[in-house]
Specification:
The protein has two helices and no strands. By secondary structure, it is mainly α. The chain folds into two domains: 1-62; 64-103.
């Protein structure tokens, strides 16, 4: 009989252990979602600041033009814009003249 009692006691402890593990698993599954949400909010400032840090380091690598080159490039752009404005203005005036002659 004592062997039967020992086997019953072992079975009972095994069942209790299984129940305890099941309860832990249920708690862990519930905490998993909550911990994921909390971790998301904890990591949010770092995820926001990371692109700005990367941009700062990339801008340090840029070779900036000298003042003389910058002025030279700006003058070239302004002259090109003036030239294109004149060309577009002449095309517009020519098209307006042709339309007026046809009417």
């Amino acid at each position: 009989m004592s062997e039967v009692k020992k086997a019953a006691a072992q079975a009972e402890t095994t069942v209790k252990k299984a129940e305890a593990q099941a309860e832990k698993a249920v708690k862990k599954a519930g905490d998993g979602k909550l911990s994921k949400i909390l971790n998301w909010f904890k990591a949010l400032p770092q995820r926001i600041s990371k692109p700005f840090k990367n941009m700062f380091y990339e801008l340090k690598k840029v070779t900036w033009p000298s003042k003389k080159k910058l002025i030279n490039y700006s003058v070239i752009v302004l002259l090109f814009m003036l030239f294109m404005g004149i060309v577009i203005g002449l095309l517009d005036a020519g098209a307006s003249t042709i339309i007026n002659l046809l009417m």
